[in-house]
Design a protein that fits this description.
It is a single chain. This protein has 11 helices and 9 strands. The protein folds into 2 domains: about 140 residues, Aspartate/ornithine carbamoyltransferase (Rossmann fold, 3-Layer(aba) Sandwich); about 150 residues, 3-Layer(aba) Sandwich (Rossmann fold). The protein is of the alpha/beta class. The strands form 2 sheets. The chain has a 5-stranded parallel sheet. Strands 2-1-3-4 form a 4-stranded parallel sheet, sandwiched between helices.
Length: about 300
């Protein structure tokens, strides 16, 4: 298979296992490119990409921007946090204004679940969802799986636990879809108040005891507690959360086997993981960042090649 089955990347639930394999194979190639002295390829010289961020994001936006520039695309950045959207302009107006500038692809982060799908039905450009509310964040899930594959050889059959605030996390949902699609076993771990009601219907087990979860897993993906999405308190105090669900070096060293630790960032050091874990050999957090650029290059390149046809 040499092309994606979709024209947009709106969520993991819309793509196939073959799509994932193709993205990873393409990312392998781009990873080699990123590590050359000259890091650019002229692949997308005639493609214009707009980055539309209706929510603040430093890491994801920079990663996309770098990926686009490495492919020699023309890039338009639009931060809606400081734009006419505040003056009441609608999503469709904003986008149509940007499309009238002849944009081929839109990378969008938006606080409303389904914003990317809505957009793909109304505008004539390829859409990449860079996070929609607490719904999906497909490129993060793909770079996470890619990093597991790089570290452990494959994703199929591996035991992965996602720890923390599952309820508010688009990373968790996309990761569950992506890991299940590739044949991994998935558990989630955290306070019951931070588990969505429907979680078990996704074929995922809930484990409330962190140590049990860690003894079971090959990979622990530690999520931060998303205080900015919480209108009420979901657990008594940060200190209590840390005691029950924080990962420190002492716990890591006491496990019966070595596990791999991941984190989508930004890290709240001393809450979900301590600095000595984040900076240890167990952690592949910086590999995830590097792989993020290669995986996003692959996705942009594969979607763009469908535009050109």
């Amino acid at each position: 298979m040499s092309e994606l089955s979709v024209d947009h990347l709106l969520g993991i639930k819309y793509i196939t296992k073959e799509d994932v394999d193709l993205i990873f194979k393409t990312a392998d190639h781009f990873k080699e490119v990123i590590n050359r002295p000259i890091k650019k390829v002229p692949s997308l010289r005639d493609i214009t990409i707009a980055n539309l961020f209706f929510e603040n994001s430093t890491r994801t936006r920079l990663s996309f921007e770098l990926a686009e520039k490495r492919l020699s695309a023309d890039v338009v950045n639009f931060s809606a946090a400081s734009s006419s959207v505040k003056k009441g302009e609608t999503l469709i107006d904003t986008v149509n204004n940007i499309l009238s500038m002849k944009v081929d692809m839109v990378v969008m982060r938006h606080p409303n679940p389904g914003a990317g799908v809505f957009l793909s039905q109304h505008v004539n450009a390829s859409i990449i969802n860079a996070g929609d509310g607490a719904h999906e964040h497909p490129t993060q899930a793909l770079l996470d799986s890619y990093s597991i594959r790089e570290k452990l050889g494959e994703v199929a059959g591996k035991n992965v636990v996602i720890v923390g605030d599952i309820l508010h996390s688009r990373v968790a949902l996309s990761n569950i879809f992506a890991l299940k699609l590739q044949g991994a076993n998935v558990k989630v771990c955290g306070p019951k108040t931070l588990m969505p009601k429907y979680i078990e219907s996704l074929g995922v087990e809930v484990e409330t005891n962190l140590r049990k979860a860690l003894e079971w897993c090959d990979v622990a993906n530690m999520l931060r507690v998303q205080n900015e999405r919480m209108e009420i308190s979901y657990f008594p105090s940060t200190r209590e959360y840390v005691q029950q669900y924080g990962l420190n070096k002492k716990i890591l060293d006491s496990l019966s086997k070595e596990i791999t630790v991941m984190h989508p960032g930004p890290i709240n050091r001393g809450v979900e993981i301590t600095s000595d874990v984040a900076d240890s050999d167990h952690a592949i957090i910086l590999n995830q960042v590097e792989n993020g650029v290669a995986v996003r290059m692959a996705i942009i390149y594969l979607l763009a090649s469908k535009i050109k046809q």
